[in-house]
Each structure stands twice: as C-alpha cells, then as structure tokens.
C-alpha cells in the first residue's frame, strides 16, 4: 500500500510523539490484517464468558498531559485519529475501569512470538522487525503445493478439516440428540403402507448417506428410543432431530382415533383422605399394634416422667425468686405448674408431627431462670415494693414471662419460614459456653440460697455473706449436706464404670434414693414433719399453692403496669438472643447422636409453634431437650406413641398440683441444683481448657465473671465485644500475603519460542508477585503495606529494582475502606519509583472491585487490572518483549493490536529515571545477549531456506547452536497444514498421531482434572511445539487442543517419525533431543503454574 503508516514515521519525532506513535488503532489492525474488503462478521466472535475477561479502558481524551498523582507519563493513542492521548484526562463518564481484553493480550503474544529478523540493514546499526500474520481467510485458501510433501500435507489437512472442524461442518449428535426420540410425521404414524420403495434408497441432501452429511450415531444403549406408534411405522433416523427439537413429541390422535391413554381418575378430596385414614386406623390390628408399642415404651415413659419431675423441682421451682412479694402471695412454687404446662405443650407439638424426632422430649428452657429473676427484680423496682402493689407486680411479671415465650416463638417461626436454620451457627461457640458457665455459677448461688433459706435479693458479695455461709453452723450444715450429695454423685459417675443401661439410670435412681433414705430416718427417729418444715428441711407450701392453676389467678390485665413491662425489653431481647441459640445447636447434635436425618428449619418451625402456644397460655419458653431425648431413645422411646404417653403422664402430674412438693426434702432439691450448676461450670471451665485458644478461654472466664458480678445482659454484651476485639487481634496476626514470587520463578502458561522464554526468565526478575488472601481490613493491610515498602527500600531497591508489582486478589474475600485507601497509598509509592501496579484475580463488578473502584484506584494511572493471574503474567511478559524489540528499530513503528493499545515500558517510565535507568539497562543487556545474538546468528541461513527452517530455528535456537543446513533433511518429513479457528486438533485421552510445530496462529491446550475447578489452560504461539510428549511416549493425549486463531502448523506423524529414525538415525536422535529439551522447559513452567496457582 502506498498510504503512509505508523511504520513510516520520521526518526526525529519528538519524544511525546515517538511514544504516542508506538501504538495504532483497532480499525487499522483490522484493515492491515484482513484487508479493507474483509467483513468483521466473517469470524465468529469469541465467547468471552468462557474465557478470562480482563480489564480495558474506554476511549480517552485527545490531549496529552503528565499525571500529577504518580508523576507518570502515561500516553496512549486515540482510537479515532491516532493522536496522542493521556489516560490522566479521562472524562467523568469514562473514568470507570473496564476489563482488559484477553484477545488483545493474546494477539500481542502471537505478534511478539512472530518477530523475525530479515537480512541485516547496513545503513542502520539497528534491525527492523516485521510481524508476519496469517489472516483467518487464509485457512480456507487451497494450499499451493511447493513439493510432494507439501501437497501430501494439504490433502491430509482437507481430510482432517472435514471430520474435526467445530464450525461450518457436520458434527456428531449431541447428548440431547441421542436421548431424544425421533420425530414422527403424521404420514408415518397413520400411513397404511410405510415400507420403503426403491426410490426411498436414493440419497437426498438431508439423508445420512449423502456425502458430507453427518453419519447417524447409534444410541449408546444399542437401540433407538421411539414413541409408541403404529407397528407398521418405521422410525425416522435419530440424526433428523436437532438441538431445537423437543425432547418429547406427541402426535395428537386424528381421524377419530381413540385416545392412547384411559381417562384420568378424579383425586379424592381431603375429607375423603381423612376418613380413609381414620377407618384404617380404627381397626383391631391397629389398636393391638398401638397397645404393643405402648407396653414397649413404658420404661422410657417412666424415665421421662422422672426426669420431668426432677427438672420441675430443680428449675420450675426457681421460676419465681424467693423474695417479696412472691413469698407473701404464695406463688413461689407455681413455677412447677408453669413448667409442666410448657413441657406438655412442647411434647404434644413435637409428637404430633412438628418434629422429625418421633421420641423428642420437650421441656422448659432452664437457661431462662436467671433472666426471669432479672425481669422480676426490674419490675419490682419500677413499680415499687409498697403495700397494694403486690398483685400489680405479680401480673406484670407473669405478662413479661409470657411475652418472652411469644417473642421466642415468633422468632423461631421467622427463622424456619425463611430457611435460616444455619444462620445461628455463625455465632461464636465460646460465647455460648461462657453464658452456660455463668448460668452454672447462678445455679450454685441459687442452691446456696434454697438450702439455707436466704432470699435471692439478700445475697451479696460481701464479707457478711461469707460469714453467713461458713461461720454459722446451722447454715453450713444446710448447704454442705446437699453439696456433698451432689459431689458424691459426680465422683461416682466420673470414676466408676457402669453398663450403658445402668449409666442412664443412675442419675434418676440416685435422686429417688435420697427422699427414701430421708423418710426412713424420719420414721426411725419419729420426727415431726411440721417441726422439720419450720426448721427448713421441707418446703413450706401454703394451702392455696397446691392447685396447679394458682398462677392464673394473678393474670389480671387491669393490674399490668405497661410502662414497667416495656422497660424490660432490653432484657427480653437479651433473653431472646440466648434462647434462639440452643435449637440450631442442639438439633444437629441430636441428629448425629441418633443417626437421623432432620430438617433444621422444620425443627425451628416446631419450636415456634410450641413457644407461641406456651406464651398464650402464660408459661415460659420451651425447647427440645438434647439429654432427655437421648436417654428417652436409648431406653426404648423411639415412637410417637411413647411421646404421647409421656405427654399424658406429665399432664397427670400437672393435675396433681404442687401439693406433693411440700413433702420433698430441701436437700434433694439443693443437691439437684448443685449437680446441674457444677456440671455447667465444669463444662465451661474444665472441659474447654484444652479445646479452646487462650483468647477464647479468657473470653469464657470474663463472661462468667461479668454475669456473676453484674448482670446477665451485661455479660452477653461484654462477651460479644471481647470476642470482636480478639477476632480483630487474631486476624491482624494472620498472614494476609499467601506467597511472594518473582517473574523468574512464576511464568505464564504460554509456550513461547525458546529464545524469548530465556529472555523473559532473565528480565522478569523485575516483576514482583504477591498473592493475597483472606479479608483485607485495617488490621491486615498494614502487613501488606510494610512488605511492599521493603521492596522499595534503598538497599533492597539497589540490589533488585522492580518494574511491575502484581497483586493477586483471587483468594481475597473482601476489602474494607481502610484497606482500599491503603492501596491508593501503595500506588503512589510505586508511581514515585516508576513501578506499574498490576491487579488481577478480580472483576470490576465484584465486591472487591467495587471497594477498590470507590477510591478511584482502578482508573488511576500506572494501574492495570486483569481478571486472572495468568493474563497479568502474560501481559507483563509481552511488555518486556515489546520494549526490547522497539528499542532495536531505527523508526518507531506501530504494533497492530485489536482492542486497547498498550505502550511499552518506556511509555510508563518515570521521566526522571528514563535515561540511564538500571531496569531499562538490564532489559537492553539481556535482550542483546539472548534475543539479538540468537537472531543475528540465524538470519542469513533461515532467510535463504525459508519455512519450515525459520520455525525450527525459532523453536530450538536457545538449546544449542543450530546449523540450518544440518536441519534441512528434516523438512521432507514434515507436513504443512492449515487449521481454521475452532478446529479441534485432538481431544484429551485420544491416541497420538504425531507432534506439531507451529508456524503461525495460536493453539490452546486445556488440561482437565477430576476437579473441574483445577483445570488449566496453556497457549502455544508460533515457534513452539504441541503434542510432543504423547507422540514420543505413545501414550494418550493429556489435554484437549483447539485452534484459538487460524494457524499453520508442521506435523511430524508417528509413521514419518519411525521412517526418519530408520533413514537418518543421527538426524532423528539430534532432532528428538531438541524436542525433549523444549518439552522439559515447557512442562517445568506448567508444573510451576500448577504448584503456585490458588
């Protein structure tokens, strides 16, 4: 063409113009590569969604300027007229970063790999380089045979292209086509005679026997899958179906044909189904089965009833504090009735289908007791303990208890409805353990108060209280005796060995034995029960307290003080928070222990219904008890019949009332409370001493101290705050940098000519790589910032200055504002040193990308962004190659690239360090030593002999000093092939057919592993080999290789290779030695990529 191009630019252009003219527009690229008449639609667009999109900037301003933020000259070409443009003068609408196109990166890689040197120019000390490219249309131009071998290669290509091409040629039937039944026409289904005629055998353009049509593929099962049809009909071949054909084609009956299926029956209504179920249930066999199950469940029912009694007298009796006005009103023991009611409600809800555990045991949440005491104390303080306010305090307290159940139930219903059963699993376990330990301390204190008759409000942490318990003989005996009983039980169960059944019964049997021994002593000594009750050995129960419904007499809505009730909301929410933690933890643990598969959301819904009903009945919250259910199952309570019997037995206990409590020894109740308190404290302090970290253990102890000295709500809040503090401290100590590399040890998975690879390995010492991980916040970003500062320090910088810093965000979960601003500071530090910041492993639309874009980092000068780590490496390697090649030309010529136009390293060099830069000098020295010497040594010979010698020299020149004349005999064994884009050269596990040497274009190998997420891709550019190891070893292909861009390759088939070994063994040995050297380097790089990938 006579039209002047960027290659014709004058040599004495200004620095800015020379830098700007180093690139050209995408339009010029299309014209230069494909010709002015070529339509862009001829080549199908690449599916970017299946590749790794990188980040590209939009059209920029037409004025050049020097950036002030980093002091960088960052000039690019405008896509319209080729004038220089600065990326610093972006308009506000175009300031947002967009992905680098991987096509641009890959095209740059291909062009750089095609750099060859023609005959030396004697009028200039520098060399001119050209970029030979193959147009996509060239793949379809018939090859002009140069000799017999070339002609043979062309015919082989035609045969391969007709069977393996991915577009424009027939393909095998897909999986859907194989499974799809053939479509039958109306004539085929209803025709009288469908036997083939002689004319039917004549091939037609659509027949399978037509030339060029796809061969019908038999079903994997050996027969066609067809719809039912007339026995005279013959199925159409399966290949008539395509991807748009429905999987099931039903031909409606015609000409009065009867329907193929009988009329559909009307389904029974719900009432009919219910009546049928009732009739099936009310049979003699069903009644006998129920009776049998009931008899088998009696041991479990007796054990469950005994456990409910023990829980009622240990926890239910503590629902109301032993303080005024509840003592004077005589409702301190009414908590036992409330316990039984909420237990019956929960038991019925779980047994009647609410829970997947057929023998699940429901009971009152024992952890609510300390919170209930806080509620009652708060209400008493707000209303005032004055004469006449007693019933108001009682009514408001009962309303607060009921409100806690309703709030708990509604929360469980919402969690179950929105399928949030696993959300509570994110709550720190050690906080819950600390709260359990605090409840244990509360129970021990309550046991002291119950045993000695001290009111809860009178217990203080003073010296007088200590004297009361230790120096008063009567008080010491009253609490020491039940404490000793509790200690004996725990020592026996800890050190003695029992069978599984005996171990399950020892706890209830022990507390049945205590009252028996007590009354044996009373009867033997002829003691008076009234005197014992006055002395504090038995509970003093008033006459009215024996009725189970006593507490309902105080439910007077007119007496409720709503202001005092609303004032309890902070405590209510703390109690709610604690209540909702148990079921999401207990249900999965119980499912594992019982080996049952349950739906946590269903269990939460059941908890919601049971608690709402319990709240409407004015009783405390309830839940599925892990220990009771486990014991119930092991004794035989595995059916819903056993659950119903347990509910009935508990209901019977409710109707009996609280009168029998007056005959329970206080020491037994005190021992129960001490046992449970000791167990909870042991679980929190002793059992976790080796299972938690030091900070977690400190959190557990601090929560217990806060709950004991101040308040339960304060303890929960303090635990959350302490956990957050330790979380920040611990995560700040974690390494946010997964690994640090240099470009010398980590290279892109692109097979390049040997000399270019050697050059890149040397100059990539100027590339620093950091792979980040975790959540980057104000506590972890400091380590990243300090590590980068060390790279820029004087001594380290003098030894190994860097050109690029690659930060990989693939394993970064998020970035907060502090970390994002820290990256801005990092970019400014790098810019001051002329270092380009390369970000990869992120997308602009991702949370990490949005966080960095919020501080304008992605659109800053001197920052490049890529979606994958390999793309970033490939781009930096291309920049090193481009810089050296351009430095060798007398005139600044444009590299024709599609998409965004990238400059070379000088274009982003800091103005003050452009002249005499150690980094730039290093690039020049390495290039002159490896690339220049390699090209000069082979220029004359390769120019004289042409292809495929040029490609052979390019592929093997760095491994030994090649004599092109020595390699000349090899050319007669090579077949030249043109491959269209999209052509599949071979599939993974195919048998090898030979090795390939790439002259032009690009191939892509895809390595598939058992884990799809670990698949890796490798690109092969001109001057490299493909398929060499499988060809030499005779083993199946280890990757799928496709043509990414139209390519020209030279194939050495297996047969030809064996012929070469016979005809020229020395030549074959030398050639195969070069191939093995190249393969060794290629697979070293591939293994390095696999070892360092995330």
Highlighted features:
1094 residues; alpha/beta; Transcription Regulator spoIIAA; Jelly Rolls; STAS_dom_sf; SLC26A/SulP_dom; cNMP-bd_dom
Describe the structure.
This protein has 1094 residues and is an alpha/beta fold. Among the domains are: 293-726, no CATH class; 735-891 and 917-933, STAS domain (Transcription Regulator spoIIAA), CATH 3.30.750; 947-1093, Jelly Rolls, CATH 2.60.120. The protein has 39 helices and 16 strands. Strands 6, 11, 12, 13, 14, 15 and 16 form a seven-stranded mixed β-sheet that branches. α9 packs antiparallel against α23 (626-634). The chain is elongated, with a radius of gyration of 43 Å. The two termini are 49 Å apart. The relative contact order is 0.12. It is found in: Membrane. Residues 83-101, 194-216 have a biased composition (Low complexity). Pfam families: cNMP_binding, STAS, Sulfate_transp. InterPro entries: cNMP-bd_dom, cNMP-bd_dom_sf, Membrane-Transporter-like, RmlC-like_jellyroll, SLC26A/SulP_dom, STAS_dom, STAS_dom_sf. Residues 769-876 form the STAS domain.
Helix and strand layout, with pairings?
Elements: H1 15-20, H2 26-34, E1 75-77, E2 84-86, H3 102-113, H4 148-164, H5 175-179, H6 186-190, H7 270-281, H8 284-296, H9 298-314, H10 326-329, H11 334-354, E3 362-364, H12 368-383, H13 390-417, H14 429-452, H15 463-470, H16 473-495, H17 500-525, H18 529-534, H19 562-566, H20 569-579, H21 582-594, H22 600-616, E4 622-624, H23 626-634, H24 640-656, H25 666-686, H26 694-709, H27 712-733, E5 737-742, E6 750-751, H28 754-763, E7 767-776, H29 781-792, H30 794-799, E8 804-815, H31 817-832, E9 836-840, H32 847-853, E10 863-865, H33 869-887, H34 918-945, H35 949-956, H36 964-967, E11 975-979, E12 984-986, E13 994-1007, E14 1016-1020, E15 1025-1026, H37 1028-1033, E16 1040-1053, H38 1054-1063, H39 1065-1092
Helix pairs in contact: 3-33, 9-23, 9-24, 11-22, 11-24, 12-13, 12-20, 13-20, 13-22, 14-16, 14-25, 14-26, 14-27, 16-25, 21-22, 21-23, 26-27, 28-34, 29-31, 38-39
């Amino acid at each position: 063409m006579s039209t002047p191009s960027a290659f014709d630019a004058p040599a004495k252009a200004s620095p800015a113009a020379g830098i700007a003219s180093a690139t050209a527009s995408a339009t010029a690229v299309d014209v230069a590569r494909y010709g002015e008449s070529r339509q862009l639609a001829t080549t199908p667009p690449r599916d970017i969604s299946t590749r790794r999109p990188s980040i590209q900037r939009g059209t920029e301003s037409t004025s050049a300027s020097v950036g002030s933020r980093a002091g960088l000259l960052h000039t690019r070409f405008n896509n319209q007229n080729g004038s220089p443009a600065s990326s610093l003068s972006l308009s506000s609408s175009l300031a947002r970063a967009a992905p680098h196109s991987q096509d641009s990166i890959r095209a740059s890689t291909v062009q750089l790999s095609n750099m060859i040197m023609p005959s030396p120019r004697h009028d200039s000390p520098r060399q001119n380089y050209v970029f030979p490219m193959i147009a996509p249309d060239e793949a379809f131009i018939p090859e002009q045979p140069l000799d017999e071998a070339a002609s043979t290669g062309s015919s082989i290509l035609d045969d391969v292209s007709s069977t393996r091409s991915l577009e424009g040629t027939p393909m095998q039937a897909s999986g859907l086509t194989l499974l799809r039944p053939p479509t039958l026409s109306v004539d085929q289904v209803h025709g009288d005679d469908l036997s083939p005629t002689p004319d039917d055998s004549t091939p037609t353009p659509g027949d399978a026997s037509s030339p060029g049509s796809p061969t019908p593929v038999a079903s994997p099962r050996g027969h066609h899958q067809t719809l039912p049809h007339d026995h005279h009909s013959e199925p159409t071949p399966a290949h008539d179906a395509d991807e748009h054909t429905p999987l099931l084609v039903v031909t409606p009956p015609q000409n009065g044909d009867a329907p193929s299926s009988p009329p559909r029956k009307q389904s029974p209504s719900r009432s009919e189904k219910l009546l049928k179920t009732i009739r099936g249930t009310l049979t003699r066999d069903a009644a006998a089965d129920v009776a049998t199950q009931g008899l088998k469940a009696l041991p479990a029912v007796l054990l469950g009833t005994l456990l409910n009694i023990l829980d009622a007298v240990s926890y239910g009796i503590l629902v109301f504090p032993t303080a005024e006005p509840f003592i004077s009103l005589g409702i301190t023991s009414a908590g036992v009735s409330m316990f039984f009611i909420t237990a019956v409600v929960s038991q019925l809800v779980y047994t009647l289908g609410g829970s997947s555990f057929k023998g699940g045991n429901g009971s009152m949440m024992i952890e609510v007791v300390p919170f209930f005491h806080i509620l009652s104390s708060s209400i008493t303080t707000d209303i005032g303990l004055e004469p006449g306010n007693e019933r108001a305090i009682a009514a408001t307290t009962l309303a607060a208890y009921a409100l806690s159940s309703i709030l708990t139930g509604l929360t469980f219903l919402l969690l179950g409805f929105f399928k949030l059963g696993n959300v509570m699993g994110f709550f720190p376990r050690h906080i819950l353990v600390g709260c359990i330990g605090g409840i244990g301390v509360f129970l021990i204190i309550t046991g002291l108060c119950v045993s000695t008759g001290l009111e809860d409000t009178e217990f203080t942490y003073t010296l007088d209280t200590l004297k009361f318990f230790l120096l008063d003989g009567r008080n010491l005996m009253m609490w020491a005796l039940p404490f000793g009983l509790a200690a004996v039980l725990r020592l026996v169960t800890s050190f003695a060995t029992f069978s599984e059944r005996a171990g399950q019964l020892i706890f209830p049997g022990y507390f049945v034995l205590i009252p028996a021994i007590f009354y044996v002593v009373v009867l033997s000594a002829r003691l008076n029960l009234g005197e014992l009750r006055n002395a504090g050995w038995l509970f003093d129960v008033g006459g009215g307290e024996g009725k189970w419904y006593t507490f309902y007499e105080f439910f007077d809505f007119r007496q409720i003080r709503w202001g005092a009730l609303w004032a309890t909301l902070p405590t209510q929410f703390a109690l709610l928070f604690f209540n909702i933690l148990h079921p999401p933890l207990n249900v999965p643990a119980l499912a594992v222990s019982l080996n049952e598969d349950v739906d946590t959301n269903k269990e939460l819904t059941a908890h919601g219904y049971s608690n709402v009903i319990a709240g409407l009945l004015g009783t405390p919250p309830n839940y599925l008890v892990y220990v009771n259910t486990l014991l119930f199952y092991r004794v035989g309570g595995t059916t819903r019949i056993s659950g119903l019997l347990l509910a009935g037995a508990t209901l019977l206990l409710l109707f009996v009332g609280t009168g029998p409590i007056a005959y329970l020894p206080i020491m037994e109740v005190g021992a129960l409370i001490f046992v449970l308190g000791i167990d909870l404290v042991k679980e929190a302090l002793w059992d976790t001493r080796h299972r938690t970290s030091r900070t977690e253990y400190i959190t557990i102890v601090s929560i217990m101290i806060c709950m004991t000295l101040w308040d339960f709500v304060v303890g929960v809040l303090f635990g959350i705050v302490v956990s957050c503090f330790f979380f920040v401290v611990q995560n700040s100590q974690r390494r946010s940098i997964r690994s640090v590399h240099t470009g010398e040890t980590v290279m892109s998975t692109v097979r390049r000519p040997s000399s270019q690879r050697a050059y890149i390995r040397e100059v990539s010492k100027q590339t620093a790589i950091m792979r980040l991980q975790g959540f980057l916040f104000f506590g972890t970003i400091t380590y990243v910032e300090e590590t980068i500062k060390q790279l820029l320090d004087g001594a380290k910088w003098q030894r190994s200055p860097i050109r690029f810093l690659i930060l990989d965000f693939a394993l970064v979960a998020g970035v907060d504002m502090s970390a994002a601003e820290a990256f801005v500071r990092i970019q400014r530090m790098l810019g001051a040193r002329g270092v380009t910041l390369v970000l990869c492993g992120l997308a602009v639309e991702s949370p990490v990308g949005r966080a960095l874009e919020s501080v304008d980092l992605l659109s800053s000068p001197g920052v490049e962004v890529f979606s994958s780590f390999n793309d970033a490496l490939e781009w930096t390697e291309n920049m090193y190659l481009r810089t050296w090649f351009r430095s060798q030309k007398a005139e600044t010529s444009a590299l024709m690239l599609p998409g965004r136009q990238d400059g070379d390293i000088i274009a982003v060099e800091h103005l003050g360090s452009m002249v005499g830069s150690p980094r730039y000098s290093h690039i020049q020295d390495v290039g002159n030593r490896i690339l220049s010497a390699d090209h000069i040594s082979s220029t004359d010979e390769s120019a004289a002999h042409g292809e495929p010698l040029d490609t052979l020299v390019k592929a093997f020149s760095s491994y030994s000093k090649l004599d092109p004349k020595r390699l000349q005999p090899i050319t007669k064994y090579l077949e030249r092939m043109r491959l269209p884009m999209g052509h599949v050269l071979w599939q993974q596990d195919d048998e090898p057919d030979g090795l390939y040497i790439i002259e032009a274009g690009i191939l892509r190998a895809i390595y598939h592993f058992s884990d799809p997420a670990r698949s890796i891709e490798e690109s092969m550019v001109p001057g490299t080999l493909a398929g060499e190891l499988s060809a030499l070893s005779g083993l199946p292909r280890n990757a799928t290789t496709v043509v990414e861009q139209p390519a020209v390759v030279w194939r050495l088939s297996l047969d030809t290779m064996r012929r070469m070994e016979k005809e020229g063994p020395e030549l074959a040995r030398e050639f195969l030695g070069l191939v093995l050297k190249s393969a060794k380097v290629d697979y070293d790089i591939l293994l390095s990529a696999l070892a360092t990938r995330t």
